[in-house]
Amino acid sequence: MIPCVHDRGSKTIGLIAYLYGPGRDEVHTDPHLVAAWDPLAPDPGRHPDVTYADLQQLLDQPVDALSPSRRPDQHVWHLSVRAAPEDPHLTDEQWADIARRMVAATGIAPTGDEAACRWAAVRHADDHIHIIATLVREDGRQARIRQDGRRSQTEARKIETDYGLRRLNTGDGTAAKRPTSAERHKAARERRPQTPREELRETVRHAAAGTVDETEFFDRLTAAGLLVHQRTAPSGDLLGYKVALPDDRNHDGEPVFYAGSTLAPDLSLPKIRKRWTTSAPEAPGDAAVDVSAGPRWPGPAGARRRASTAMWQALLVIDHGTDEQVAARITGAGEVLDALAATSAAPTRHELRRAASVFERATRSHTQAAHRHDRALRRAARDLVRSGPALGGGEDGATTAMVIDMAFFLVTAAVHWHARKNHAQQAAAARQSAEHLRNAYRAAARHPMAVLHQRGQHLPQPRLLRQAAHLRTAVPELAEQILAEPGWPALAATLADAEAAGHQPATLLAEATRRRELDTADSVSDVLVWRLRRIADLPADPEQMPVTGTTPAPSRALPGRRTGARPNRSRRR
After folding, report:
1. Where do the structural domains in the chain lie, given as residue ranges?
2. Between these two residues, 148 and 185, which has the higher pLDDT value?
3. Global pTM?
């Protein structure tokens, strides 16, 4: 059940007319009272002789009884209460009980208070009610309704339990503002997949990912096609910004601008500046991600490898870091997801965008991030953006599977941390993001894993047994599970590739299994494939490796790199 306290108003008649009217797009059906401060309150929806003004005059009587100088400017209070889509149909009597509990919990009409505010609950749809109240009590005093939003949320959790409804997570005041009903209806009329507020929030997040200063940030906003207005002080100092979509206009044909702070709490200019202005020395491990790493893995593929390394290092410290350090790594992971979504190819684009959008909620809590600890991840995000869009196949596509696999485990670690801290909404958001990442991984990994699987099946039996022996030596507790998985041939082929490149497979396996999150994987062998190929610096695209089996096959070597194949000296010249 979702309660929402709306902005206060000054015209009681206007809100009554909306609640009893057809609504935008005529979605209101059978509007009527389900409860009110007085059981005999007139209902314009059920009695044809009752007008909106009749109800308005009664609601406003305590306000009108005050002298004009004592009347509050914004005296109209408005709360909507909506059931979840999967909740059972509630009767008018049940909604009436919910309304009474809400006005009591929020301080509008405490139980047993005969001098409380006047209020009315209107139902004009199956799944929700609206409560209108005037904020002057019968005794002439103004209602004391501090923290009414939080109190309504607390009562909603109790109502869910009492009525057997879907249990939602209690908010903590760090969520981004939801689109208003007017914005949603406007988007529906214009057939937009998102409201302008949501589209702008996503675009600004992507633009901020990995930026280092204001110039780069505003250049990215402009390049994304947004209208940007900068707010400056008389001294010329930049105070803030607002953005608009070129095709989102108001009734006067003017662009509808949104300030960064109204899109999300962490998108205000001061909050974004905090990402840039930390002067503390780099945290240990930050230097491990070198965005100028040599030409072996250039372009998007190299950027994805380095992002995988940054996330791996974040995983290694997330269990024993301070809360501020962990929060910084979670916000950094959000920037990496934003950068991946902005540079993804068609097969993974939709799921990565959903993963980044949902995870945005997990990056904000009351734990303040120490931003010096997210430098490696922010640098990785910057590298992803600067390297440009990735193709869906070849090394680009395979390293996309590699980085998504690592992102999945970092997001899973965020789930565990938020759950331990009782951050219910953040944990739920991270969990949902992990599912989108799982779907994106399947799309990205399908072809390279199929190639590796085929190569593993063609390994000679002695070599296959040797890789199984390495597995039992390195991870005896996981060996039999992995050997029984359908992905074992692909892992065996990767171990053979690592061995051919001069590595010790057992040593690599020990390093790759240092994390506990393997139990959350659909396939442990799949996870180890990508970790081993990253650690051993093997091509992510198996078609770029020389064949390790006995059946000759052509291989696509990297430019300027020996494949290890020996020339056929018996060939006649």
Report:
1. 2-163, 190-276, 286-544
2. 148
3. 0.76
